[in-house]
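Note to self: keep these together.
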Amino acid sequence: MTRAPRGWVMRRALVVALVAGSAACVGRDPAPIAYGRDSCDYCRMQITDPRFGAELVTQTGKVLRFDSIECLAGYYASTDSARVRSLWVSDYAHPGTLIPARTALYLRVPGPGSPMGRGLLAVATARDAAALRARFGGESLGWTEMLAAAAREGRAPIETAAPVTAAGGERTVTVDPAGPVRTITAALQRVARGGRIVVRPGTYREPTIVVDRPVTITGEGRPTLDGEGARQIMTVTADDVTVQGLRFAHVGASFIEDRAAIKVSGARHCVIRDNMVDDAFFGIYLARATDCVVARNVVRGRAERESSSGNGIHLWSAHGITVEDNHVAGHRDGIYLEFTTGSDIRRNVSTGNLRYGLHFMYSDDCRYRDNIFRANGAGVAVMYAHRVEMTGNRFEQNWGSAAYGLLLKEIADSRIAHNVFDHNTVALLADGAERLVAERNDFVSNGWAVRLEGDTQDGRFTANDFVGNTFDVATASRTLSTTFDGNYWDGYGGYDLDRDGAGDVPYHPVRFFSLVVAQHEPSLVLLRSPLVAVLDAAERALPVLTPAAVSDHHPRMHRVP
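Structure:
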């Protein structure tokens, strides 16, 4: 008998030993998941979160990797169990550590959204399970219960075509409910960088869509992306992405995460335009975004309480954002900015929101032009900002015991010009505003046109019209450094002998009765009484109690053209 060479025998023995060893330990030590490099063998999405990954080892020793427990369950349900040697899931409490799937403890929670949006996570010990339930709530499941829940709820159809590398791919991919590509996620795997995805009419229900390459996504006939009240619909992480012509619907509220219909995270030069957003917790959310455009979207919420509602358009830690020609209604705040700089908010309509039509904090060097803020809970709030410019806006019908058209809180070096304040409880409330310039604004038919707190310093009101207001100016400070000059006051009864268009005697816009109301609000019921008229007339003739510093030495005889 011919003998095999000695070297070959040794190599074969070594291979047999390695295979036997791997077979012996495969149930204990599966191959580690390379997060950020591996992709899911079921849905083809990149595996990016070590808290949710899973693995299946076949009888031949092949390791299949999954980005979530849901994907593992979906694959396991569709394959012959006799081909499966072992199943593993990531320990949520110890990210990157794999534990046996059949003995793991499962939780389905409303908090940390898993990659597929079902909220399934696994832990190894009862102590970890109890801690996570105390933190997030939710329900406990065993292995069979988890499989049953995954099968019962189902998943969006997953195309099995292999992903296309970023360097190649198709220039245009069409998504159609009856076509070969039925989900946007699958289209993203096929499309080339800088390519185009066309979404045909229909309703699409799929796990959170992650747009991780430059692409244009265009809806034809307003297709609907449905979040089913349980998850964020789309996350954009790549630069140079355009999303247009889509309808986003049904993003459920969460007290742990800011779920949005569409969220742009850490990206530049993105465009979100001509979309509709209905019934979303947050509508359009930009975080750490730069030089993006949000334009011509209609964002409609169903907010009932501030504590359980989000904002229509939300910007956080962003720069150079343009928000224009959007219609926002039915949210906590219509438009919200925080730590956002150098941005332009223009020609938007924000109405019927629970709290503010526009709310921004710590947002310097921003411009707000030609917007309409109507019938919101408290109008617009500008807080802790510098060099803000608000021009050409309308603040209308913001009524309530704590409502105002515009609140300026701890701001500096800002300009308010060519705005209309019409039918607000308080048109403009300045608290801690320094070096404020207010010029050529119309204050019409408000309760209080301007209220100035004592720490508002070095402001200047010039060429404004005050018409039909109950109180033109109110303040409790007698040392106010804000000046009024060249404004029109419909209550001015002076004369202009030199015919230069300015009154010859100063006008004191602070009514005596406004001081009384500031101390005793119920006295407002006496507003139309003859006694109040007599007291006001006496104070105008011989000012004693009203602050002498608040006076207009050149009141205009006619309205500012």
